[in-house]
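Lecture 7 notes: from sequence to structure.

We start with a single chain of 119 residues. Read the sequence below before looking at the structure.
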Amino acid sequence: MAARSEILHCYAQLAATLSLMVTLARAKEWGRLPELEAQCASLVERLRSVSPQETLEPAQVAQARQLMQRIRADQRAVRELVEPQLSQLVATMAGLQKRSDLDRAYGLGRPSAGGVASL
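Now the structure, written as tokens:
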């Protein structure tokens, strides 16, 4: 019985963590998302390692399905909120790389050989 309740416990924790991730993403508080993503990955690994000795009872199956629906909905919401931010970050990084390449190509940002331009 402990393994079965452990499964539901993991799903409940996963649902709560993803719900918090949605809240933080909506508030554009990106800093905690990597930590919470790591917690989700740990919970998924824990779920994979838990093997129940018996099947879940019908009420537990229904509860697990409800939790999985919440989890999937929150995963979609987080992805929809994060993907535009990641695209913007990638574009910004590409622009910075291009600028750096141009600076190097034209020798900008480098000090002259003696530190003083000769006349």
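Residues 58-105 form the longest helix (48 residues). Keep this in mind for problem set 3.
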